Amino acid sequence: FSFSWQTTFQDGGEEVEDGAVYNVTLKKVQIQQAANKGARWLGGEGDQLPPEHTVRQYETSKIRAIKAGTLEKLVENLLTAFGDADFSYISIFLATYRAFASPRAVLELLLDRFGNLETSSHGEVANLNSLESEMVLRAEIASVLRAWLDQCSEDFREPPGYMCLLKLLDYLKNNMPNSDMESRVQNLLKQFQNQEVEAVDGFCSTSSSDLVDGEELEISNPEEFSSFQDHVVAEQLTYMDVMLFRRVVPYHCLGSIWSQRDKKENKNLAPTVRATITQFNAVTKCVISTILGTRELKIQQRAKIIEKWIHIAHECRILKNFSSLRAIISALQSNSIYRLKTTWMCVSKDILLMYEELSEIFSDHDNYLTSRELLMKEATSKFANLDSSEKENQKKSQKRLQLQKNKGVMQGTVPYLGTFLTDLIMLDTALQDYVEGGLINFEKRRREFEVIAQIKLLQSSCNSYCLIPDQKFIQWFRRQRHLTEEESYKLSREAEAAADTNILSPKSQKSMVKRISTLFLGTDVFTPPKEQPLKSSPAGGSSGESTDSASVSSCEFNHSETEDVCVTPVSSPEDPLKKSSVGSDKGYDSDKGSISSDKGSGSSKGSIFDPGSGSDSGFVSSRDSVPVPSSVPRALPVYNRQSEGSCIIRVSMDGLHDSVYKSILITNQDRIPDVTQRALLKHNLEPGAVEDYELVQVISEDKELVFPRDANVFYGMNSHVNFDFILRKKA
Q1: Is the Cα torsion angle 370, 372, 373, 375 positive or negative in sign?
Q2: What are the protein's UniProt keywords (predicted)?
Q3: In sequence order, what are the beta bridge partners of 6?
Q4: What is the pLDDT of residues 206-252, one digit of tens each?
Q5: Residue 722 above 50 pLDDT?
Q6: To 10 degrees, what angle do helices 417-430 and 271-292 make?
Q7: Are the CB atoms for 422 and 617 separated by under 8 Å?
Q8: According to the 3-state scheme, what is the secondary structure of 327-396?
Q9: CA angle (333 as vertex; 328, 338 as ends), nearest 5
C-alpha cells in the first residue's frame, strides 16, 4: 500500500468548564490509500491508482488549548495538556507563570493537590484502575518536574532556606525514591548551597566608590586606549555581553515584572536585566570618556578616537554583537559628542559612511524593522551577513569576515535587549491580565511567550562563541572613571570652543548635521528630553528607573541609579546644533526621531541603554515614532494611534524629566478621573489624590491642551500629535 496525508485545521469554537475556557481546533487528516499491486491494470501510472480507485480515509482529532482559567486549572492543565495535544503549554506556562503566581504556589498545587498518588483523581485518569492511574500520574508529574528543572531551575534558587527545593526533594523521596529525578534535585540543592549568594557579575564596577585612587589614572588616556587593537576591544566587549546575556532569566523581561522595578521594595528585582543595562551604560560612558576625558587633545587626535570607536563598532557588527554596537553608536550620538562639529569634520569620509551604515541598522523606521529583520536573520547563522554600499568598506568587511571563517569558529548573536523589553511592555499594556469571571488570561501569556522564545533562541546561539577574556583590557575597562552629564557637557563645550568655529561653511555644516542627525534614533522607543538646566540627576531613580516604559532620549537612558544611569543629553542655548541649523529644511524629523526641538539640539541623539529609563518597556523611541511590537498585531492598542476605541498614551509627571513616563491604556469610555488615577498608580503616587492634579496633553513646544474635570480623554485628545501627556499638580 502507499499513503499520502493532507492536514487541514478548523476552528472548533470554545469549550467552557468550571474555572476554565478552552479554544478548540479540529485537526482533520485526509489519508489517501492505494494498492500498488495491479495499479497498471487499472490504468494507473507506475504505482499510482487512478482517482476513482483511491481509498480516502479521514481522521479528525481535537486540539484543546486553554485560553483562560483559575490558577488551579492552569496548574492541572500541566498534567493534561499533552493529552489535549497542546504540546507547547508546559513551556509557555513555565516561562510566564511568574507574572501571576509564585513558584511556591504552583509547586504546592502541583504536588499536594494533583500530585498525591493516593488521592488524586484528576480528569484524565479518573476512569483508569488504581495501578494504571498511579503510573500515568507519576509519569505526568515527572515530565512536568523535568521540564521545570530543565527550563527554569533558577526558580528554585531561594537562599538561604531553599524551601521549594526541599519540598520537592521530600516529595520525590516519598513518591519516587531513588529515581534520577531525586538525584538531580539533590545535586541542584548542593550546587546552590555551594555557590555564594551574589549579584550577577556585571564585569563593570562603575561607581566612583570602587575607584578610590583610580580616578586619576586618566581613564581617557589616549595612548593606553590606542594600545588595544580594534578587534580585541570588540571581542572583549562581546565576551562580557555574552556572559551577561546568557544569564538573563527570561521571565525578568516580562512587562508585568520589569515594570515594577522602580518600587522601593523591588530594588533588587530582575537583576539579570539590570546587569545588561549596567554593561550597556558602561560601554557608552567609556566611549564618551575616552573622547572627552583628556582636555589636551587636538581636534585631529579626538577625531582619531572617534574613528577608532567606529571601527570597534564595525568589529562588533562582524561578531554579531548588537548590544555593544548599539551602545557605541548611542554614545557617538549623545549630545556631548554629537555637538563636536569641528571634530566630526576631521573624521574621514569612508569612516563616516561606515558609521552611517552601522547607525542605519537601528533606524526607527517601521518600528525598527531593519534591526528586527537583521536580528532574526542572523540569530542562528554561523557568521554575520555583511553588506555595504561603499566598496572600500565592503572589502574590509569581507576580509575581516573571511579571517573569522578561516578560524573555523562559529558565532552566536547578542541582541539589543531593549527591543524585547519594549515588545513585552507593549503586550502587557495592551492585553488584560484577567478576563470575565476573574480568570487568568492565558492567551496573553502565549503572546508573551512568542517574544520569550526569541530571547531563549538567541541565548542558545551564544553558546557558539569561543572567546577568551583578556584581563588587561577588562581591568582597564573596569577602572574607568565615567564622566557625569555635567562634566561631559562642560568638556564638550571647552573642546569646541578651542576649535575654530568658522571651520565649517554653512553648506557643509548643514550637510554634516543632516547626515549625522538621521543616525540618532537607535533606541527602541526613545523620547527626546526637553532641555533643562544642567543639574545632578535626582537621587532615588526618579529619572529613569521609575518608569515602566522605556524612554530615554535618543541618546541616553536617564537613570539616577548607578547601574542604569547614563548621560542625559542636555542642550544649551549656545549649542550650535539647534533647530535653526539642523531642522532648517525639515523641522522636526518625525521619521528619524530627531533633534530639531527648540529645547535642545542633541537631545534626541543617541541612547544609552536603560530600558527602565523612561518607559514601560525600557526603551522608547522618539516621540514621533509609533512603536508596534512585532509580536503585537495591529488590532491591539498601540501608542500614537487610536484604533477600535482604545489607544496607549504616555504620561509623565510635571517637574520630572519628560523622558520619564508611564504607558497607559485608555478606551473611549475613560474620563479624566479614571486616567488620572491610573497615572498616579503607575507613578507610585497616592491614587486618592486625583482632585489635586490636572491632565494636559503636550501639543507642541509652547502649547498644551488642558482637559476639563469630566472630559472624555479619548475623544477630547488631539490625535494628530504625539499621545504625550503631563500630570501636573493644580495651582
Answers
A1: positive
A2: Guanine-nucleotide releasing factor
A3: 30
A4: 333 344 444 444 455 788 899 999 999 999 999 999 999 999 999 99
A5: yes
A6: 130
A7: yes
A8: HHHHHHCCHHHHCCHHHHCCCCHHHHHHHHHHHHCCCCCCCCHHHHHHHHHHCCCCCCCCCCCCHHHHHH
A9: 130
Counting residues of the chain whose pLDDT is more than 70, the rounded percentage is: 66
CB 576 within 8 A of CB 501: yes
CA dihedral sign, ordered 547, 553, 559, 562: positive
DSSP letter string, 288-321: HHHHHS-TT--HHHHHHHHHHHHHHHHHHHHTTB
C-alpha cell at 390: 561603499
Instruction: Give the whole-angstrom CA distance, residue 288 versus residue 483.
Output: 8
CB-neighbour burial class of residue 463 (10 A; exposed 0-12, middle 13-18, buried 19+): exposed
Closest CA to 483 of 285, 280, 284: 285
The domains of the chain, with CATH numbers, are: 1-33+55-69 (no CATH), 72-117+135-193 (1.20.870.10), 230-490 (1.10.840.10), 642-729 (3.10.20.90)
Q: Kindly report, residue by residue over 503-521, the tens digit of the pLDDT.
A: 544 444 444 444 444 443 3
Please tell me the predicted confidence (pLDDT) of residue 544.
34
CA quadruple 523, 469, 384, 564: dihedral, nearest 10 = -10
Alpha helices in 479-555 (DSSP H): 485-497, 506-517
- List residues bridging with 7 in a β-sheet: 29
Q: Quick one: cell of 319?
A: 561578531
Per-residue CA distances from 335 to 124, 164, 288, 291, 493 (Å): 63, 49, 10, 13, 11
Output the pTM of the full model.
Answer: 0.71
What does residue 657 show for φ and ψ, rounded to 5 degrees? -55, 135
Torsion angle of alpha carbons 266, 272, 278, 281, nearest 10°?
A: -110
pLDDT tens sequence across 43-86: 555 555 555 555 667 777 788 899 999 999 999 999 988 877 78
Per the structure block, which three cell numbers stand in for 596? 530639531
By three-state DSSP, how is residue 584 classified? coil
Half-sphere exposure of 632 (CA within 13 A, CB side): 23
Within 13 Å, how many C-alpha atoms sit on residue 124's CB side?
A: 18
Establish whether the linkage from the previous residue to 687 is cis, with ω within 30° of 0: no
Return the bridge partners of 643, or none: 646
Burial (Cβ within 10 Å: 0-12, 13-18, ≥19) of residue 404: middle
pLDDT, tens digit, 9 for 90 and up, residues 457-490: 999 999 989 999 999 999 999 988 889 889 999 9
CA 371 to CA 522: how far, in whole Å?
10
CA distances from 550 to 8, 460, 537, 627, 727 (A): 42, 26, 17, 11, 18
3-state secondary structure of 17: strand
Instruction: Judge whether 362 and 326 are in contact, CB under 8 Å.
Output: yes
Q: Is 142 exposed, middle or buried (0-12, 13-18, 19+ CB in 10 A)?
A: middle
379, 351 contact by CB (below 8 A) = no
Contacts of 467 (CB under 8 A, 6+ apart): 235, 236, 238, 239, 242
